[in-house]
Write a structure and sequence with these properties.
The chain is mainly β and 107 residues long. The protein has one domain (25-100): 3-layer Sandwich (Rieske Iron-sulfur Protein). Helices cover 0% and strands 34% of the residues. The strands form three sheets. The protein has a four-stranded antiparallel beta sheet, with no helix packed on it. Strands 6-7-8-9 form a four-stranded antiparallel beta sheet, with no helix packed on it. Strands 1-2 form a two-stranded antiparallel sheet.
Length: 107
């Protein structure tokens, strides 16, 4: 049986919690007021919670796990998780990022 349609399209499936580790997919979660924790496989990054372009909330960002990129949901600026460099979108300002390694405790 097909999903029931609403006037503006099909009923969307419920969203999975962003903090749950499921199927090895990247996880994006709040890590305090000013940072977001991004887990990709065995790697973990702490990034600024706000996009440097227009302060988009990166807790709702998409992560490309193959390229280690994070994309702001507001205007789609994309950043390298290793360097913070702006790769595409309307901003040229870098994102504050750091990789959390085993020898340094998370903040």
């Amino acid at each position: 049986m097909a999903a029931p349609d609403r006037a503006d399209g099909p009923v969307p499936a419920p969203a999975r919690p962003r903090t749950a580790v499921t199927d090895g997919a990247p996880v994006v979660e709040a890590a305090g007021e000013d940072e977001v924790r991004v887990r990709v496989g065995e790697r973990e990054f702490l990034v600024s919670a706000a996009c440097p372009h227009r302060r988009g909330r990166l807790v709702f960002a998409r992560v490309n796990e193959a390229r280690l990129r994070i994309t702001c949901p507001l205007h789609h600026s994309s950043f390298d998780l290793l360097t913070g460099a702006a790769l595409s979108g309307p901003t040229e300002r870098p994102l504050c990022v750091r990789e959390v390694t085993g020898d340094q405790p998370p903040r």
